[in-house]
């Protein structure tokens, strides 16, 4: 029998006290990381941390959903739920990540085909990714995995040097008009979509 908190439950004519626990939706914030910030709470070099820009929370802490390099800008997600962070960063999730890339050199059709097929890096082959040219020396790349320095290493394999790298989207969440250094908390409906 399904019951709700306003129901009265009796067993053998006696009223039974029942406590209902509610599962709280984890909090998630999106942050536009500028270049020159580190995704770490502790840095021996004393560089600025993304965690200093986030809102303070009581009884918990922000957990980064993945990372961005010191010289990479763009969308970062933070959550109060370790379970959600693990789910989103686990390779099995194949969560889509969309980046804008500016390089020295030219992304040839052959190079685009190599990216689409997957590239053999020292830590194994990459999953196929798609690209779209958006101008001279500029393209968008969509990944379904998030390895350390992955785009820079793939470009290096293709004899390209990354000049600028910015993450625009993680799954259904896009950077939009968020300016560098700004954050915005996701609505519960957006968090539910992200969890799916």
Notes on the structure:
The chain is 17% helix and 31% strand. It is an alpha+beta fold and 196 residues long. 24% of the residues are buried.
How many helices? The count is 4
Low-pLDDT sequence parts: none
Number of strands: 13
Tell me roughly what share of residues is in helical segments: 10-25%
Through-space gap between termini: 28 Å
Q: What is the alpha-carbon Rg in Å?
A: 22 Å
How would the global form be characterised? elongated
Main structural class:
alpha+beta
β-strand amount: 25-35%
**What profile does the largest beta sheet have?**
9 strands, mixed
Arithmetic mean of pLDDT? 91
Which H/E pattern describes the elements?
EEEEEHEHEEEEHEEEH
Supply the key terms.
single chain, two-stranded antiparallel sheet, 31% strand, elongated, alpha+beta, 17% helix, 196 residues, 9-stranded mixed β-sheet, 4 helices
Topology:
Layout lengths: L8 E3 L2 E3 L11 E6 L29 E3 L7 E7 L2 H8 L7 E8 L4 H9 L2 E2 L2 E2 L4 E6 L2 E6 L6 H8 L3 E10 L2 E2 L8 E3 L2 H8 L1
